Every structure is written in structure tokens, then in C-alpha cells.
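Whiteboard transcription, Tuesday session. T.W. wrote the C-alpha cells on the left side:
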């Protein structure tokens, strides 16, 4: 992200493109080789597809990256896209001690058996499972998977909370002419409910990432309210 770089080249430091702090409520994930929170499990083909279409079997674009693809990378030729992908895959992981992600069916089995006793499980079943499925694999490339998703496993939960609160739009691209919309739940779910369902997603299917609190949600809800109020045009 502009103006918060920890390093300017891969030769300068291993933290180059390794993620960063939240910008406008969105937390950039690592573009290096981390297995869980980076591009370690992405192939060059995955990266090319993401930059061209904004969607792959691994995930879908959201937040500030949407404009970068809509107005930029989708227009690059195959050679340029492949060069970017090849470069990114050449970057080793910054967090070399990060364990690999392995799918766990525990939550899937529980949901299939009607067991929603886990924190946030019933909310997930009611609000999320129709698109993202009880196994967390969703319906790529229409709806992005939550199982093994680097955004979900990012230590900072900001991006995931923002999406649950405000929703997200996967816009049409030249090569993928269909738009898909996820509704926001900010008006129908309390801070505690959002915290519960986000915590369930972060803990399930082998994601094994820590829970969040309603204070995390409250902070981002206030931030979103400020953004909306600053962009409203007064009517005279």
C-alpha cells in the first residue's frame, strides 16, 4: 500500500510485499510465499486469473484492490500478467515458521449434523452457508471460499469484518462479464453477532485463527459511519 511500505524492493528486505497495516479499513495480505496468509498455495495461473478477472478458485477481489483490477490489470496482456505472477511466486515467505494450512472437516460434520452449538455457528448457517457452504469451500469463482482463505487467516480481522458489515461487490470484467453482490449485515446484526460469526469463520475448516471481540466490530462500524457521512452530498 502506498506510503506505508516497509521496504521498496525484494533485495532490500524480506518484508517487501509482506502485508501491512490497515488502510481505509482494509488490511493488505502478504504477496509473498506464506502458506496460510500469503500466496504460498496460489499458482502463477491463479495469480494471472485474479489480476485479469478479479476472481479465481482461491478468492475474489474486494476493497481497494477492486479499482486496481477494474481500471488496470484486467487490460494487461498475457505476457505482462505472467511476468507479475512469476515475480510474486519468486518471493519466499517472510514468516518462515508459519505452519501449512490443512483442511479440517470438524465444523462441516457438525453443521451437517445440525450441531450449531459453536460460537457463531447458527449465524453462519443462517446468513452465510447458502453461498459459502457448510464446508467453507463456497462456489468458486462465483462466491469465494472461506476455508484456507489468506484474508480470513490474516491476524488482523479488519477486512473480513468490513465485508460482513458493508457487503461487497465483485464487478464485471471484460473476461468475466457477470457481477456478484454480497449484502452487508451491518443493519441486521449486532456488534456481538458480527464478532461471533467472524470468529466462527476464522476458527473453522483448519483456519485456526483467533477470535475477535465486539470492540473490533464497533471500531470498524464507527469508521464506516464516518466514511459515509463524509461522502454524502447535502441537498440545498
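and on the right, the sequence the group agreed on:
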Amino acid at each position: 500500500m502506498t506510503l506505508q511500505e516497509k521496504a521498496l524492493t525484494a533485495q532490500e528486505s524480506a518484508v517487501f510485499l509482506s502485508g501491512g497495516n490497515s488502510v481505509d479499513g482494509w488490511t493488505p495480505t502478504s504477496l509473498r510465499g506464506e502458506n496460510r496468509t500469503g500466496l504460498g498455495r496460489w499458482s502463477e495461473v491463479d495469480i494471472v486469473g485474479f489480476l485479469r478477472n478479479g476472481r479465481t478458485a482461491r478468492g475474489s477481489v474486494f476493497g481497494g484492490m477492486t479499482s486496481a483490477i477494474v481500471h488496470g490489470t484486467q487490460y494487461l496482456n498475457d505476457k505482462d500478467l505472467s511476468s507479475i505472477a512469476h515475480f510474486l511466486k519468486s518471493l519466499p515467505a517472510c514468516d518462515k515458521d508459519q505452519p501449512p494450512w490443512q483442511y479440517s472437516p470438524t465444523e462441516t460434520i457438525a453443521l451437517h449434523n445440525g450441531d450449531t452449538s459453536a460460537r457463531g455457528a447458527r449465524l453462519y448457517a443462517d446468513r452465510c452457508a447458502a453461498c459459502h457452504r457448510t464446508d467453507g469451500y463456497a462456489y468458486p469463482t462465483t462466491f469465494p471460499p472461506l476455508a484456507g482463505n489468506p484474508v480470513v487467516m490474516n491476524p488482523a480481522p479488519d477486512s473480513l469484518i468490513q465485508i460482513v458489515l458493508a457487503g461487497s461487490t465483485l464487478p464485471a470484467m471484460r473476461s468475466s462479464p457477470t457481477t456478484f453482490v454480497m449484502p452487508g449485515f451491518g443493519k441486521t446484526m449486532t456488534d456481538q453477532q458480527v464478532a461471533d460469526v467472524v470468529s466462527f469463520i476464522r476458527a473453522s475448516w483448519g483456519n485456526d485463527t483467533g477470535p475477535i471481540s465486539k470492540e473490533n466490530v464497533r471500531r470498524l462500524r464507527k469508521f464506516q459511519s464516518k466514511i459515509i457521512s463524509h461522502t454524502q452530498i447535502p441537498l440545498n
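Someone added at the bottom: The longest helix spans residues 214-231.
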